[in-house]
Amino acid sequence: MAQAGWCDGKWLYTVLIPSGILAPSPLAGEGRDGGDRMDNNKARELRKNPTEAESNLWRHLRHRQLGGHKFRRQQPIGSYIVDFVCFEKRLIIEVDGGQHSEQAAYNSKRTVWLETQGFRVLRFWNNQVLSELDAVKEMIYEALSVPIPPP
Question: What is the pLDDT of residue 5?
Fold first, then answer.
């Protein structure tokens, strides 16, 4: 279960895992290049080599399976590549592995930039996607149902 809310000009998400422990979403993102312009070849390479968690989630997001919303995967946005994005709802889904806990400063900067571009960012740990897929899909569906705030 997730709680989402608009606070101080930002979307805040809290994830409740089935064990009942309240845990903040991971701070890490999937930014893989910090240059001024994203190399489309890198995005193509990432699409060809997804993590197990990304692959599992993609099977449920592709072909408008979640509420009829179109998602793209490994999509360049500015100088970053996001795991999944629904442009219609301005929603980015990130699936983070353990390595991201070591990149907090970079990931914070990345998230702030994406939010300034009008995107909401929803993050899940790999193990959440692999072991709690139904709960993850429900949280994404709830986020898709929230109206987009005015610019």
Answer: 53
